[in-house]
Specification:
With 277 residues, the chain is of the alpha+beta class. It has 7 helices and 13 strands. A 5-stranded mixed sheet has the order 3-1-2-4-5. A 4-stranded antiparallel sheet has the order 6-9-7-8. Strands 11-10-12-13 form a 4-stranded antiparallel sheet. The radius of gyration is 19 Å and the shape is globular. The model has no long low-confidence stretch (mean pLDDT 93).
């Protein structure tokens, strides 16, 4: 059941428990929350209900309640679908080709050299290396069959990306690709409201030139113009910062970012916007 809370008389959050610890957050424990019967008209609202199956439907439903989701349906697609954001950000991220259906090995070899990175247009299959990092044509033939039956991948457009080695970090996560110097950042209307290491399961890691990584993420946020956006970025083995992917922040887990600090920064940013108006 959804919990509808007005945080600090400022922002409405519609949340549901997903049983994913890195995503769920109890707003009632950290903020003054009220539960109005009537929201008036056009009250700003954020969804925290996990993966959103039909964003258009959610947007229309919340509008009937007097709520305005922070991202429009068009902005949601711009953030969450690789085929929407890649043309705008192609120079910041590994070379990518999106297919309507799984390509043949010949099609891949005409465009890339092995290894390649395979994913869906929205996400990987839980970072499973056996379904992501494809080193040979023979391996691709096997993996493509598994792609068709994978519960996460089968409904997505297949994506082949140039494999770019990333700078590794200490530790590993069983069943996942090797952790790298990757970070997650949250952006509210172009302002960074929180960032931290993406691989929260491993020991702390840092980068001396993190400002350069955050500058790249800021560039992404400015280009996409999505009000509530997540930008994941990483440093390559040869020292470059690259974009890994974007997403609608409403659907994104917090990684190593402290949720209370993130939402406090968002509320402060909204307050600053109101003062300007």
């Amino acid at each position: 059941m959804a919990n509808i809370a007005l945080l600090e008389h400022t922002l409405v959050v519609v949340s549901e428990i997903t049983h994913v610890p890195v995503y769920d957050f109890d707003f009632e424990l950290h903020f003054r929350c009220t539960h109005p019967q009537d929201f008036g008209n056009e009250r700003a609202c954020v969804l925290r209900i996990g993966a959103i199956r039909n964003y258009d439907c959610e947007f229309r439903e919340k509008a009937k309640w007097g709520l305005r989701l922070v991202n429009s349906p068009e902005q949601h697609l711009s953030a969450s679908e690789l085929e929407s954001w890649y043309p705008i950000l192609a120079d910041l991220t590994p070379r990518t080709r999106i297919f309507a259906e799984l390509p043949t090995r010949d099609e891949i070899e005409a465009l890339f050299t092995w290894p390649v990175f395979l994913k869906g247009s929205r996400q990987t299959s839980q970072h499973n290396p056996a379904l992501s990092v494809i080193t040979t044509a023979a391996q691709y033939e096997q993996v493509s069959e598994r792609y068709k039956s994978d519960p996460i991948l089968h409904w997505q457009h297949p994506v082949i990306r140039e494999f770019v080695p990333l700078e590794p970090v200490m530790g590993e996560v069983p069943g996942k690709i090797m952790p790298s110097l990757e970070f997650r950042s949250f952006w509210w209307k172009g302002m960074c409201v929180g960032w931290g290491q993406y691989w929260y399961q491993v020991p702390r890691y840092a980068a001396k030139d993190i400002d350069s990584g955050l500058a790249l993420a800021e560039n992404v946020a400015k280009r996409l113009q999505v009000p509530f956006l997540v930008v994941d970025f990483a440093r390559t083995l040869d020292g470059r910062w690259i974009l890994i992917e974007c997403n609608d922040a409403q659907e994104s887990g917090y990684a190593a970012i402290h949720p209370a600090s993130l939402w406090r920064n968002i509320l402060q940013q909204i307050g600053a916007e109101d003062k300007i108006i």
